[in-house]
Amino acid sequence: MIKIIMIEDDKEIAKLLKEYLYRFNMELINYENSKDGIMAIEDSGSDFDLLILDLTLPDIDGLEVCKSVSEISGIPIIISSARSDDADVVTGLEIGADDYVSKPYNPRELVARIRSLIRRKNKEYLEWQGDEITNTDINSISSNKNRNNGSNSDNIIGNSIRYYDAARKNNNINDSINAHAKQFEIDEDRMIIKKAGEVLDLTSAEYELFSILLGNKGKVITRDFILENMKTMSYESIDRSVDVIIGRIRKKISDDPKNPKYIKSIRGYGYKFVE
Predict the structure, then answer these.
(1) Closest CA to 201 of 188, 210, 192, 211
(2) Is residue 255 scored above 70 in pLDDT?
(3) What is the residue extent of each domain of the chain?
(4) Among 86, 117, 167, 208, which is least packed, fewest CB within 10 Å?
């Protein structure tokens, strides 16, 4: 889970954002004044993946906080403020902020910006494998991570953004997308999927989602990953939308939702295609 620290004196905003980000596998811890927030970063800064910082704070101006945090930690910083003056934006970015969003903002946009910064932060971690990262490398990393966390041995795509980035970099995640499976075959050029040689009557969203599952056979795909990577679904789509499309796909491939043969529901994560 991505762990985020926020310094925001508006309790209501902090509460709403905490609840919203939790849906995207993000834990938010808020401090209502600058001193407590800075102290938390000094004491356990390595435990946090990102800082969301308001500028208008009761004790210390947010720009001063940004400068102080930048001097003591390499944590990515997103400034979130109603102060949209160009001078504040430029100053914030110059003294250490990585991004700036003006209030009010779409929370789904904030999620996208958070992910972007986390991916950038994790880039150095990925590069130790060099430019020849393979699926075996990724699975090994994922397996080690799962063992360390005491979780099951399924390869989870979307639970940790870094694994997807590594695979996407080398185009490995979809290497098998044109391969013939036992029952299903994808034709990317014609954007069709066949079952036992018969073309399935799929909508664009159904085709795109099913392609993701087929291209990652045997791996758990989170709802969050699906929402982020489907062109036919907007950022404002909710997790339930994925479930609805999955239900339609199951009907079209004659997959009993109560006892599915092909698309398995993985509670708390998402779905996995098996054959």
Answers:
(1) 192
(2) yes
(3) 2-126, 135-273
(4) 86
